[in-house]
Fold each of these.
Amino acid sequence: MAHISSLGAGIYTYLDIFTGTIPAGTDTAVECAALFVGTTPGTADADHVRMPSVREFPSIGTPANIVNVPVYGQATSSQVQGQSDAPTLEVTVNYISADMDPIHNLIGQEVVFRFMMAASPVTQDEGAGNTLAAENTEFYFLGKIEAILVNPALTDATTATVTLSAQSDFFGAATI
Amino acid sequence: MYDDVLSDIESVFASTAWTDNNITIYPDNYQGAISTQDEFCRLNVLPSSSNNYAYGGDKSLEGLVAVKIFVKAGEGQSRLMAISDILDTVLQNKRLTNGTELGTSYLNVEGLDPSNNSLYSARYIIPFKLYGE
């Protein structure tokens, strides 16, 4: 399909995880996208996991780190983009222990993340296809799930904060 | 979802925990005869708002359950409070079959019923929330 072409709420946003063996040198959106295609395209494999019931997403992408460079004879300094710190990647989920069990089991394992925004609902199986019928935009990165902290609440759903770490650049925006 | 909430709440009033108390409760929009004239309740389920509680379109529904309690006038507030306590035991902080969760209750004492001075009334109110698919 194509990128999302109109402004709208990001209701249909998903975080998918590829838990299988990551080929060496995986460093492009196309290579990452191939990992999320099922052995039978359109059917998710066992190593395709979706983060359940996400309540809040972090900002995804490479943050800026602007460095001022003094230039002799110029009224203002010039600026260059330096190497930036990876963003804080904390995902808040509605915590249902049974649903989160597979995520707990991934703590510390290197995986590939796919942050997908779509114009309409995308099931896990649909997300394992070569293309999607709905407009969609993805960002990929290699990383790990580092921690899951559970936050009980008196008057609302129990939530958990899932902390991710980035082990690569962010690849995208891409579309399938 | 709306039907699930109504079914959950009505099932509470069909359970023996409630019926053992012999307090008749009528649903809202009931237009038949009310035989127990000096002590009865009216049930209102009032969904009031909803939102997406997760990405992907999952919806939660919340609102209030209001039970209007009528007791005999001229006999103090004691029976009103006793019925409210019974309502608390069957409703407060409960999670029902379809997943409706009830919170903590409060009571608005409304005094003599303007349309029937032989009845004294209060409104027992308790919030509910249901997380759907």
Amino acid sequence: MLKYLYCKEVFREIPGEITLGLSISGCTIRCPACNQRELWEDKGTPLTQQCLEHLLKKHQGITCLLLLGGEHDIDALTELFMYAHKRVKTAWYCGLDALPKNHLGIIGHLDYLKLGHYDSDSGGLDSPTTNQHLYHIEHHGDGSYSQSDITHLLQKH
Amino acid sequence: MLNTVNNMYVIKRDGSKEEFNPQKIENAILKAFKANNYSLNDAELKQIKEFCKGDDTYEKMSIDLTVENIQNAVEKFLISNPKWFLVGKAYMFYREQHKQARLIKDKLNYIHKYSESSESATNLSNTDDNANSNKKNAATLEGELYKDTSRIIQRSQMKELLAEINSPYRDQYVKDLEHHILYQHDESSPILKPYCSAYTLYPLLVDGTSSVDGTRNHAPKHLGSFIGQFQNLVFLLSAQKKGAGAYGEFFNFFSYFCEKEWGEEYYKKADVIITNEHNLQHRTIGQTIDQYFQSVTHYINQPAGNRGYQSPFTNFNVFDSYYWHTMFDDFAFPDGTKPHWEAVSWLQKRYMKWLNEERTKTLLTFPVMTVCLLTDGKDVLDKEYKDFVTTQWAEGDSFFVYLSENADSISSCCRLRNEITENTFSSTTGLTGVQTGSCNVMTLNLNRIMQDFCREHNIIDKETGKAWSGRGLLIQIEFNDYLKSILDRVYDYQKAYKTGLYKMDKQGMFPQTKAGYISFDKLYCTIGVNGLNEAARFLGLTVSNNKDYMDFASWILGVIKDYNKQHSEKKFKFNLELVPAESLGVKNYNWDKSENYWVPEDENLYNSYIYDAHDDTSILDKIAMQGGQIAKSIDGGQASHLNLQDNLSKEQYTKLLEYAVQVGNSYITFNVPQTQCDGCGFIAKHPFDKCPQCGSEKVTQWTRIIGYLRPVKAWSEARQKEGSNRYFAKKETIC
């Protein structure tokens, strides 16, 4: 089961959106330079569909739901995104450098996807030398989609 | 008294205590006789000695005697004997002379203290301190010196006026003020004046400023003379009121004169050069207009000598096309011509862009800009203006947006909202819908009122000092009556004040009404509220977007609003404002704390919003909490100052604006601290600790103290402390 530790309305992570961000704990990627090691532990509030429903209701006015992490249970994530995507835009900050082939289906329920582990030398998304990428996924209605790299939008300041 | 003499103390005038010594009193009395060449016989001497030691003299007084009380007793003693009448009279005269001397000495001491102090003018102020003046100087000192006397004069005047309207509350007024359940704003002027006004500029085109300043000038005929006279007018009118002045038609009139200079389509010719070979510098129409922008803007930021060196608090309105057409379609200038929307729209947008740019060169407080947008409850109707305001916000511009489903009200102030009762234009008087305002603001201290009520009903927990929980519903009905009984008195106080204004107006004391800039029956009597969050916390509620708290706030505000409506009549209309309480929030907190009322320990003043500006309540919750029923109840105004640490994108501002419309929030602004380097003067529309230009770490932050943009350094000490606790929503991190 996925659990989350932090839940907050944020403006920076997804350009142009009013985002509700949830940090998922139990991280298995464990980047060496990680500065949020409390997320390595399996602790926090269980993130069920019911819980998500409640959070979306409570944070009325947000335009995007962002889940950070949760790579250890992509199936559960997919279900949550499937639910949320009917109500708001969805975004996933994924610490993997590429999506596992057997889980590409999650893209069908996402509007934004960040890929890439955190490397302190390259820096985060706002660093010009970052190894990470933020994609905007555009769905064409017939099940097909296209993606555009919008990382540069986070690098203004 | 003789029995207790050893334990008695005298409290001297400076507050220090001294052991009681009857001999000193005897000496003083004997001196008085001697000064009058009165020879005392033995019997009289004995009588005096008896008095000074006497049981009867002091026993009815408290254990600690004050000098004043002793002197009163002596005075009574001296005049009790007809033979001593002259001595008694001389003694009274002597006391009066010393009282005068003490008063003068106090004032002199104040002058010395003020002049020597290194504090800002704001912190030196005894009464109604606000950050709208910077450094102390001779003029700010002059403004301060007699504020205490002014208050006494105003209160006496109020007593007279209450008698005039046959109010049963004439003696209660000062009691309510001194009990701090009620605050009369700006008592520092001994003269009754209206609070704030939104003026029409029509009379300026008829008589120039002559109807206000008595000079024999003429109505302006050119853009240059219009700007000059407008500037004078702002200062002239600022002397005739206590608060802000709003000029909703400024851009209409500005545009009228542009048309006179360069034709109806001047705005299409902004790049046309209008200088010739004789000009050393060449200038286009647009550049000429910008120069006038500069002139007006810098001028109204100048301190006004007649206002204790405060700048005249000035507001301009910008309207979207729907709003503008509703407000001005029937309007005509004295020459019969009409304002043209395309030209005005171009001009007001150009001004906002110019002002935003100018604020990167020098940080300017005024004008406070409000953009009025009409909505259908779901979205802003004028998409061009929706695009314009969100673009401006994203470019770091700081201004208010007023959202309304009907053009039946305007926000003419930093938060004051006023319903427009009649939006009919009269070509003879020039009366337009922009005229509105508030004649006087009296603010209830809800935290104290609630606690007084709970004390009376014995429902305070002795251990926590808070109300017993679970009594919410039971107290509602009784509290309604309790609050209404206070409001009954306040309505009389307000009526008395306004009666005074009407009277002075009849006597010709307010040239602005005679000239037609404003009419007093258009001004509301405003009931302010402060201490709402604190009253809720006292009752055990949590101040956040939760049902219990929101129900509580809606209930209290609803009671006041409905009762106001019930008591309004044409000449005395009441409205309700969530007041900024720049200095009152601090005062109420301190008064309540010192008199053992419950106050939150984690604050140093009472909040000015429905939400708590000092916790991490999200931006969306803040917008929602001051929307809906709350916004409807506070018919006299409120503002959501949404503190952000950095600017958002245009898309994000667009979404927040849409959300504000949907939840019925009527007045918002985004507040990103701006920073100026004290070294090189570099200004950025976001916070920095180290100047990116010169590396200096000496920087000044500017943010909205409570509505208007001021350097944090100019704030009062308590406000600076509060400012450091304000929560600015961070952009960068989730945890």
